[in-house]
Every structure is written in C-alpha cells, then in structure tokens.
Amino acid sequence: MMRFTLPRDMYYGKGALEHLKTLKGKKAILVLGGGSMKKFGFVDKVLAYLKEAGIETQLFENVEPDPSVETVMKGAQAMRDFEPDWIIAMGGGSPIDAAKAMWVFYEYPDTSFEAILQPFSFPELRQKAKFLAIPSTSGTATEVTAFSVITDYAKGIKYPLADFNITPDVAIVDPELAETMPQKLTAHTGMDALTHAIEAYVSTMNSPFTDPLALKAISMVFECLPDSYNGCMAAREQMHYAQCLAGQAFSNALLGIVHSMAHKTGAAFSTGHIPHGCANAIYLPYVIQYNAKDQTAKERYAAIARSVGITGSDSECVVKLCQKIDEYNVKLNIPKTLKEFGIVEEEFKEKVAKIAELAVGDACTGSNPRAITPAEMEKLLTCTYYGTTVEF
Ligand code: FE
User: Fold this and answer.
1) Three-state SS across 87-138?
2) How far is ligand 1, taken at its centre, from the CA of residue 277, in Å?
3) 190 CA distance to ligand 1 centroid (A)?
4) What sign for the dihedral angle of Cα 138, 364, 6, 22?
5) How many whole angstroms from 246 Cα to the centroid of ligand 1?
6) C-alpha distances in angstroms, 345 versus 226, 269, 359, 382, 386?
7) Dist. CA 250 → ligand 1 center (Å)
8) What distance in Å separates the CA atoms of residue 207 and residue 110, rounded to the nearest whole number?
9) C-alpha distances out from residue 335 to 18, 105, 221, 225, 330, Å
10) pLDDT band at 138 (very low <50, low <70, confident <90, very high)
C-alpha cells in the first residue's frame, strides 16, 4: 500500500496571508527566524490578522539557520507554557523545520530525538495544536513536506526527521513574502526546487500521484527562474508556486543522491559552507549522467527532457537535459565544479573517501534510481570537482 499526504489546505496568491483573518482558534504561537519578516512588515500583518480573528498570540523569535536541538526544546517549553492550539511558522526553511520538531515535543514532552529518528514512527500529533506554515523563500517547500532537519551541535549530528504527522495542516504560499529574497538566494533555492522535482520524478518511489506535480514544477522552473533571478516579480510568483509543487512531489516520492551529496559536502570543507541549493545545482548534471546508465532512469530523464521541448533519442535527450541545466547554472552565476566553487584540491582529495562513504549512507540514497557503492560515489564526487564527464 502506498500513501500520498499533503496539507489539508493550501492558500496561494498575492495577499493570501489574509487567510489568517478567518482562522478558527484561541491561541497561536508564531515561530520566526532572524528578523527579515519583521523588517519587511509581515509579522505586524500576521499579528493584525490574528487579532481580527480573535486569536491571542505569542512570538518565538530568532530560530537560527540549521536550527539546534536546544532551540527546539526551548520552543517546545514556550508552547507548553502558552498552550497554543495553532503553531504558525513563518520564514525560510529553518523556523518552519524547527517549529515542526517543537510541535512533537510540545505534544509529547517525554519523547526524545532518538525515539523519533526512525522514519514514519512518530506519535500521533494534533492532540494539542494544528500547524500552519508560511514560507518566505522559494525552495525547501517545508510548508508542504513531511520533513524537518534539526542539528545536534554537541554531537555533530543532523537529525533528518520524516513523518506525515509533521506535514503541515495549512500552507499559505503568498508570493509577496518571496519578493524579499536576495538574488543569490533566489538562484540557489530555485535550483534546489528543480533538483527536488527531477529527483522525485526519477526516484524509485515515483508514482502517478507525484509525476504530474514534478513535471509541472520542472517546466515552471525552466520557464521562470532566470527572470525571477533578474528581478521579475511575476516570475518570482511562479517560482514560489513551482517550488511548492516540487515539494508536494518529493514529500511523497522522496529524493536521490544529488541530495545525499549536498547533505554530506555542505559543511565538510574549511573554505566555507556550500549553500544547499548551490551544491545541488553543481551535482545535478553529473548525477543525471551516472543514473542514466540505468535504463528505466534514462527513460524517465528523457521524459523530463521531452516535457520541456527537447527532442531526439533517449540518449540525446539526456545529454541535452544536462546541457540545459549547465546553461541555467551559467545564467544564475553558479559554478560548474567544486574546484570553481573554491574548494581546495588537497583538502578535497584528503576528505573525498570519507564524504563518499557518508553520502552513500544518507537517507536520500535509498530512493535513488541506480545503486551506488562508496567507491563509485568517490569517483562521482571527483568528477564534480574537476568537471569530467561521468563514464561509469
Ligand atoms: Fe533540497
């Protein structure tokens, strides 16, 4: 038996934030990130709308990027003290991810991260509160997914939480919030969304329920991302919807090794963090070359290519799809290789074997369409460093 789960309601369009005026409830805690939502006036809007709805509110602010276990526990305590019947998370991926985990510990104070690490093993949520998510970036789609990533800095571990219990009840996808994204973030989050849709479409978990969402997201990203990057707000609006469609696809079809590689290289080098979407954008064409050696995957990449107007045999379609992604990376000022990104050769060589092993063990590897060994992963990562074609 398969399962397909999405939020019960998704409100979208300019001004969709106004839905909050009609929210039914008593108390809402508003979970926020570093302050950009406040700066641009969206927090005031939310508070005014909730007041109009007769809902008492409390803020939980300053959730950091890559939210920590401590922040989650502090937020859960704040929720236990305030007893909200709505958890409203607004901002980039971090405050929304953090709020999802706070929700678990609000409703089940005696559980632990260890107890919920097994995917799809969560206790039944919605005993105390429902969850509403409002994204301000166009990439992670955490407003519609069953996922959350929390970091245990003391242990140096990332906990990838996965359960349909933490799929939000309501998502408000208002493009006015995404208008505040800086240009680089627009490029990176946009390529993250493209990667979500492509990986979901070729995933071993793909289905007739997720395929249309993935294909539509892919065509919208190809159509709108460069203009969105260059400041066109009509295109920015379409990107905000495209990333949400991609999220609906991958929350149910899962991802592949582009994400495994991005997860394990993101914080691996001393020269600085590789932003998640930027890492995905670099790896995507190489992974397509690797996966397309599998006949079924090749046919599905060809189907993606044809859905965006590329013609030719399956093999030609795969080559042209990779070329198209390369062209977009150029337009978006994203480097083609890890070397070009600025990773030092000596450090790369020293660390690549260990990173390869970790990437193979990543939660996203299981649904990749072609199996991979640590030795193959090391070769693949090496191709992404020097920009060599993947021929194995
Ligand atoms: Fe991603």
Assistant:
1) EEEEECHHHHHHHHHHHHHHHCCCCCCHHHCCCCCCCCCCCCCEEEEEECCC
2) 6
3) 10
4) negative
5) 10
6) 31, 11, 19, 10, 9
7) 10
8) 37
9) 40, 40, 19, 17, 7
10) confident
The H-assigned helical ranges of the chain are 36-39, 42-52, 69-82, 93-107, 175-178, 183-202, 211-229, 233-253, 257-265, 276-291, 295-307, 314-331, 338-341, 345-360, 374-386
Q: What is the pLDDT of residues 7-28, one digit of tens each?
A: 999 999 999 999 999 999 999 9
Burial environment of residue 295 by CB neighbours within 10 A (0 to 12, 13 to 18, 19 or more): exposed
pTM: predicted TM-score of the whole model, two decimal places: 0.97
CA of 195 to the centre of ligand 1 (A): 7
Residue type, 99: A
83: CA distance to ligand 1 center in Å? 32
Decide if pLDDT at 302 tops 80: yes
pLDDT single digits (tens) 64-113: 998 999 999 999 999 999 999 999 999 999 999 999 999 999 999 999 98
Residue 157 above 90 pLDDT? no
**CA 203 to ligand 1 centroid distance, Å:** 14
Which region, left, alpha or beta, applies to residue 97 given φ > 0 means left and ψ of -120 to 50 means alpha? alpha
Distance 42 CA to ligand 1 centre (A): 25
Q: Residue 193 C-alpha to ligand 1 middle, in angstroms?
A: 7
